[in-house]
Amino acid sequence: MITVKNLHKQFGNLEVLKGIDQHISPGEKVVIIGPSGSGKSTFLRCLNLLETPTSGQIFFEGTDITDPKCDINAIRRRMGMVFQQFNLFPHLTVMQNLTLAPVTTGVMDKESAARKAGQLLARVGLSDKAGAYPAQLSGGQKQRIAIVRALTMNPDVMLFDEPTSALDPEMVGEVLDVMKQLAKDGMTMVVVTHEMGFAREVGDRVLFMDEGIVMEEGTPQQIFGNPQNPRTQDFLRKVL
Amino acid sequence: MTILDGLSAWLSDLKAEFILNFIDKNRWEMLVEGLQTTLLIALFACLLGIAIGVLVAVVRTTWESTRLTMRRGPGRLALSLLNRVCLLYTTVIRGTPVVVQLLIMYYIIFASSNNGLMVASLAFGINSGAYVSEIIRSGILSVDKGQMEAGRSLGMTYLQTMWKIIAPQVLKNVLPTLANEFIALLKETSVAGYVAVADLTFAGNRIRGVTYSPFMPLIAVALIYLAVVMFFTWLVGKLERRLRQGDNR
Ligand SMILES: Nc1ncnc2c1ncn2[C@@H]1O[C@H](COP(=O)(O)OP(=O)(O)OP(=O)(O)O)[C@@H](O)[C@H]1O
Ligand SMILES: [Mg+2]
Q: Domain range spanning residue B132?
């Protein structure tokens, strides 16, 4: 579904990604872990071109999205993204947050977008918040709405960048539950997280990133049970 | 007794002055027409200023936010050029007095036209646009970067995101500053008389010129400006309170 070939990213003189090759299959749940500043967010943001790669190629469902002729907006409609800081639209109600993109981009008409949004809201238990503004929601509720907002577009893959890192501890669970449900439903997911329990439970494959490369990858059993790379061992010792 | 006599003499003086300056020959009509002209210029200049200001602000912030990532090509070149034109415009306009701009417009650029009202409206609008663009630019920059990223990640284009997500938040942020700019603009139009436009100030001054009695007409002009400004300040305050309701609903 996503193939990354020799991906490099530089910010000025700072080389953040130093050659990443990855293949993500449909339905796969890939969890990315690693120390701060290792390039996890940059890698994730390259996948939907929020960051423009310096070199290398990214194929999404067969299309080279790094090709200047590719319609990146059309590609992004099939990739959902959830941010650490939620980034809900503060001037719109929850329902408007959910229907704005599908209606504006012409993916759905108003009625079907509202219907779809209503179903998804019910699934995360927030039907009663449809008319609320983001400022009236708790952090956990905001993030669940942000996930629903991305899902309303019917994406083929969901990208999560530390979705629970800005939350009070007691709200982490409700967001992870939504993500676990999504995983169960078969969504293709790429998740940057510090929640090792989630990585172990949900991940099909764990990537350990450090210094701009994928230092080690494997099943959660391999990475958490028997890490080979000393950097991975060191990192896991610190976080577990 | 003498105090009362003095008071009544002063009052009848005042009355005579009032009649001389406003009632005789229906001179008050000049003030009314002047006020109409002032409001007309201010309104037109305000609309033009917003139009120019938004355009310039969008060009400049688009360039600033995409210049590092935009691919080379004619689009990039055009945007870069546009950005330079906008920069030049704001620099020149903000670096020269509005009266000089007005005179240049009237005696050089539109020398063939003697429609002072039109020229003054254009001059004040073009002047205001430079200040409005800076206000709107800082309003755009004050919206969290994550808003644009969220919009784009959902597949909306840059312009769709700008219009549906950024603009409403910018409007709320800039409204108070923008309102102050237009109150300033309203007062600035008082130099329109330089190009023979009979605005409110010009009317008051002309009355003073024929009656040789400066007090009444000039104070009247000042009071009218004050009343108009206070009215707009009140209006903006109301609007602001309405916009802010979304925050804590
Ligand atoms: N827009 C940018 N301009 C310049 N440098 C950047 C930019 N974005 C990220 N960086 C730098 O790139 C490096 C990697 O950042 P990135 O956000 O990808 O790390 P991360 O692994 O997600 O870390 P964290 O766990 O703290 O989120 C950091 O040194 C960061 O300072
Ligand atoms: Mg990060």
A: 28-248
